[in-house]
Design brief:
The structure is a single chain. The chain is mainly alpha-helical. The chain contains 16 helices and 9 strands. A hairpin with a 5-residue loop joins strand 8 and strand 9. The longest helix has 31 residues. It starts with a helix and ends with a helix. The N terminus is likely disordered.
Length: 459
């Protein structure tokens, strides 16, 4: 049979499956996934309430979930938050378990719902899409904060790393605290006598770049003070990795200025120019920093691995501490823990003739460091690397394997799922956000009035 005939037959076989059947199966499976996720979060809520994660000596249920179920730290924290909220929200939990309300909707509602308001919120959320509900929840929280008596105490600072490696920061502070921060920035920028008109103009406000530089100056001064007095100054330092060639040779062109450990066509061990556990830096920036920075040399082999920089001291000197942090990513290496605040632990204890050398040192957070020394936990070296053992000898792998699924997904829950269960009653209309917020807070006010005067509600 020719190749053309085989291709034609396969296309015909694929064409036997109607698109309507595919759509039906996708929607039905989405309903099953929703009902199963509800069951998963119910079990997680019970596990958290009983502190099952503490049996593994982990700092939180989110850390256990991230370790055992292969979730990122942020996703694990969000799952635990939703699981805790659902324990007090029976109406939303019932809709979730029935497969009629997706996890995206439940996650949004649990940010604003209370046992008193959840029924009304669930009814409003029914015909909305998940994106519309997210908009509604954001608006609800804004109105709630505006109406709250303690809105003046609201404060937050958020940041994100941009695609080019730069940092964007957004901060919100009460008026008095904001004045303190702004005055400090003006002082650091040498701009105290400027009138600082609030109205935008070409002459009045100080340059935004000047205030940004002032913020860096203030932060640097704080860290410098900590470094001078801290027992472990490394946690207050910004560490930059740069190859000797980056420091010695100017870049040939602007395009060649930034070479990071992640550049695909340049081996990581030959040209390194990046913030530790962070974005790449240009050669010009690294050379500028080197003019006044503390320099520490680290030797790498051809595979990029750090070689021994052995010292015969019980307490690792700063150079060796930095080498340990560089080798292990500046994080606690105990399974399930990603803490950045670490001590340096001797795998073979100093008292047992263990060397203060790179191959015998391991970063552990204070909690796990105490567990190793006082809680019976052990770290042993195997051909596969370091192994963390509990007091009973149980191995704690860095990433436990998930068990194989057993049976059909429909057997994991009791919901009656059809292809239309998960589909909201949305007819394509745009969300009238003002009306939705007005109705939500209006219903809440009526509920409060009826609670105070039951007779009025029966008229």
């Amino acid at each position: 049979m020719s190749e053309e005939t085989l291709t034609s037959s396969s296309e015909q076989a694929a064409g036997l499956v109607p698109l309507e059947w595919l759509e039906s199966q996708i929607c039905e499976l989405a309903g099953h996934l929703t009902a199963t996720t509800a069951q998963f979060l119910t079990l997680l809520g019970d596990f958290d309430a009983r502190s099952g994660w503490a049996e593994w000596d982990l700092p939180s249920c989110a850390a256990w979930l991230s370790w055992k179920c292969q979730l990122t730290s942020g996703t694990a924290r969000e799952h635990v938050r939703v699981a805790r909220a659902l324990r007090t929200l029976p109406v939303i939990s019932a809709e979730f378990a029935a497969g009629r309300m997706s996890f995206a909707k439940v996650r949004a509602l649990t940010r604003i719902a209370t046992p008193v308001t959840e029924a009304g919120l669930a009814e409003l959320a029914g015909p909305m899409t998940a994106s519309q509900l997210e908009r509604f929840v954001r608006a609800h929280r804004q109105v709630s904060r505006a109406n709250a008596e303690d809105a003046i105490t609201a404060r937050r600072l958020t940041w994100r790393e941009e695609d080019d490696g730069s940092l964007s920061v957004s901060i919100k502070l009460p008026a008095a605290d904001g004045a303190v921060v702004l005055q400090a920035l003006r002082a650091a920028a040498g701009d105290l006598e400027h009138p600082h008109d609030k109205e935008a103009s070409d002459e009045a406000p100080p340059a935004a770049a000047g205030l940004a530089d002032a913020l860096v100056e203030i932060a640097g001064g704080y860290l410098a003070g900590k470094i001078a007095t801290a027992d472990n100054p490394d946690i207050y330092q910004v560490i930059v990795h740069a190859d000797a060639t980056v420091l010695a040779e100017p870049p040939a062109s602007p395009e060649a200025a930034g070479v990071s450990a992640e550049t695909p066509d340049v081996p990581a061990e030959t040209r390194r120019s990046h913030i530790e556990d962070g974005p790449a830096l240009s050669a010009a920036t690294v050379q500028r920093l080197a003019c006044e920075a503390t320099m520490t040399w680290m030797l790498h082999d051809h595979d990029g691995n750090l070689l021994d920089v052995g010292r015969r001291h019980r307490r690792p000197p700063p150079a060796l501490r930095r080498a340990v942090r560089a080798r292990y990513g500046a994080r606690c290496q105990a399974p399930g823990c990603n803490s950045r605040r670490t001590d340096i632990h001797h795998i073979v204890y100093w008292s047992r003739l263990g060397k203060t050398a790179l191959e015998n040192l391991y970063p552990l957070c204070r909690r796990h460091h105490v567990l190793v020394h006082e809680g019976g936990y052990r770290i042993v070296v195997s051909p596969e690397g370091l192994v963390f053992l509990r007091p009973d000898g149980t191995v704690m792998p860095a990433s436990p394997a998930l068990p194989a699924p057993v049976g059909e997904i429909a057997a994991q829950h009791d919901a009656d799922i059809t292809p239309t269960t998960i589909i909201p009653n949305w007819n394509g209309d745009r969300l009238n956000l003002d009306l939705a917020i007005w109705a939500c807070f209006g219903n809440a006010r009526l509920a409060e009035e009826r609670a105070l005067d039951p007779a009025a509600g029966s008229v």
